[in-house]
Each structure stands twice: as C-alpha cells, then as structure tokens.
Amino acid sequence: MRVNTVVAPSRLLAWRLAVFAIFTASGLSIATWAARVPSIKTALDIDNSAIGLLLLGMGTASIIGLSCSSVIAARIGTRRGMLAMMLMLAAGLATIGVGTDAAPSLTLVLIGLALFGFGNGALDVMMNVDGAAIEVAVGKTILPLFHAFFSFGTVIGAGLGAAAAGARIDVFSHAVAVAISIVVLAFIAFAFVPQRDFGAPDAAPSGWRERLSTALSAWREPRTYVLGVVMLGMAFAEGGANDWMALGVSEDHEGGPALGAVALTVFSVAMTVVRVIGGPLVDRFGRVVTLRVLAVTATAGILLFILAPNLPLVFVGAALWGIGASLGFPLGMSAAADDPAKAAARVSAAATIGYVAFLCGPPVLGVISDHIGLLNTLYIIVALVVASGFASGAAKPLPGTRGTGH
C-alpha cells in the first residue's frame, strides 16, 4: 500500500474512530436484518424453506463479495471501496424493507439480500485491512477491539430491532431508517479515512492491473491456507454457537427456551469482553501463544458444554467457549495483514476460507445432527478448534514486517 504509516496523531485518531464507526455500522446492519426475520416471514407469509433460500442467497453474495474485495481495493483503494460497499449494503437493506412491506415480493427481498450480502462481505475485508494498517501505525494489537465494536453494533441493532418489533413498526420504516443512518455515517467516516493504493510502500506507482495481480497472489501462498485453518476452526466455533447453543441448552440439556437464550447471552458477553481487553494480552504474550491458549480454552468449554451433568456447568462451558472463540478471527485477519503490500489480498483470501465456514458450517452441522444428535455433532467443532490450535504457528509475524503480536 502506498501509504505512510507514520500519521500525525490527530489524523491517526480520526482514522481510528472512523474505522470503529464502520465496524459498528456493519454489525448494526446485520443485526437489523436478523432481528426482523420473524416479521419478514409473517409479512410475506412464507415458510422456513423460503427463509432458507433467502439465507442461502445472502450467504452466497457475501462470499462473492469477500472474494471480490481485493479486486475492488486494487482498483479504487479501501477508502472509496468502503464507501461504495456501505452505500451498497444500505441500498440492500432498504430494498429488503421495500420488498417486505411497500411492495411485498420475495424476489425483491432476495435482491436486497444479494446487495446487502455482497456489500457486507467486501466491506468486512476492507475494514479489516484498514484496521490492520492502523494497528501497524500505533504499534499495538487493536484489531480485536475493532471486532468488539462490530459486536457492539450487533447489540445495538438487535435492541433496536426488538424495540421496533415490539412497537409494531413495519420492516420498511425500520430498514429505511437504519439504511439512511448508515449512509450518513459512511460519508462522515469517508472524510477521515486516508486514500491508499496497493503496491509496495517504496515502489513506483503501478497500474491497477499490477495491483490486481498482487491481489490474487495470496491464493498461491501456503501460509494463506494455514491461516485459513486457524480462522475456519474459530469461525465454526462462533457460528456453531450462534446457531445451535440455545437449542442445545433448551432441548438436549432440557433447560427450556429462556435458559437457552441466557446461555447464548453468556457466550456473547464472554466473547465481547475478551475482544475489548484482548489487545494488550496479545502484545504481552504474542499471537501464537494467545491463539493456542484460547484454542485449549474453547476445546475445554465445548467439551464441558457437551458433557456437563447440570445446567450451571453448561453455562460455565458456554462462557469458556465464548472466551476461546473470541480472538481467532481478528488475530487471523491481523496476521494476514502483516505485509502492507499484500494485506488486502491475504486478508481477502484467509477471510474467505473463514467465512465459508461461518456461513456454511452451521447448516451442515444441522443436517448431521439429525442423524447423530446435536451434542454429538458438536464434537466436530472440537476437532476443528484443535486443528486451529495446531495451525496457530502461522500467525507469527512475518520477518521484516511491523506486525504486532511477537
């Protein structure tokens, strides 16, 4: 990236706050959609199979967006790329609202979700690339904190969604209001994010085709795939908990729906807290040690969740599971971005592997659970988390870079 990481403190602070806001907006948008799924189902009078079709469309578009992100960054840079993707996901969110209430149409909602998914997928990589660049500039591990702000956004979005549903505010009004807020925030953040081109910091300016070649080169590097294993295991752990933990407590541990929701809350709070405080821990002990300790913690938590003879121990397992799964994804992103010249390409490639697991893994677990039971299915996640721990050595900073987390 042709960008000087020695940035004036005031500019660096503004850039950092802008990217915090972008992470928050992404979380807000995703939770807005998720919170209104029941209302969308009722308004369109559709069944779970149709909801599955919508989720498949959004997931597919997200993966395409992830895969295209490095190409977009190579063409126009992350500054304009993030603005464009935030506008796209806002347009998608508004279209979902239109297709739900203003002009009811499953096809319109699917089109909205495709725009929404592509925009969020591509934005995810680019905001992580900028977060990693800021991390290098400040010389501290702060990418987990950026991901904590994403979590804050999901909490805000879920809360607003619950309030809107409780007040019987239609999806159209709610979605359009959130979309407008994201557009306004996008332009405010745009003013404080520096324009950055992709290429070696000390090289002569290159054409976008050369930058595109660099963008695609990460798929030829073995380290990309090993980091992908790190992120895949932790993505399975996070996605599996989000989709199946409440059901596991409610049915398999016979705790009922309310305690199922409580267990998922315990998991989410534990994950968010560690993301807030995790940066200094990584700077103290290094990425590799931190990832291995967290892999052990997640493994212990999931096993306790599966085998616990009583509900209090199930909740302890949920907390350990959340702690263990908290930093794998952000630290994988951080490791992929060690070399600024290839940050977008490597983050895009590694994130694609992780997100395929995050989006596709839980449904696969659901199919398997129909045959062997949900708790037994969770042993698959245990195996993947163990593999993530063994692969963690790939997160060691590259020689000659200013990557954080020794």
UniProtKB/TrEMBL annotation:
* InterPro entries xrefs: MFS, MFS_dom, MFS_trans_sf, MFS_Transporter
Which domain of life does the UniProt lineage start with?
A: Bacteria
User: Which SUPFAM superfamilies does this chain map to?
Assistant: MFS general substrate transporter
Looking at the record, the residues that make up the Major facilitator superfamily (MFS) profile domain are: 183-406
**Membrane topology, from the record:** Multi-pass membrane protein
Give the subcellular location. Answer: Cell membrane
Membrane recorded as keyword: yes
**Which positions, given as ranges, span the membrane?**
12-35, 50-74, 81-100, 106-129, 141-165, 171-193, 225-246, 258-277, 289-307, 313-331, 343-365, 377-395
Q: Which UniProt keywords apply?
A: Membrane, Transmembrane, Transmembrane helix
State the PANTHER family in the record: BYPASS OF STOP CODON PROTEIN 6, INNER MEMBRANE PROTEIN YBJJ
Q: What is this protein called?
A: MFS transporter
Q: What species was this sequence derived from?
A: Microbacterium dauci
Lineage per the UniProt record: Bacteria, Bacillati, Actinomycetota, Actinomycetes, Micrococcales
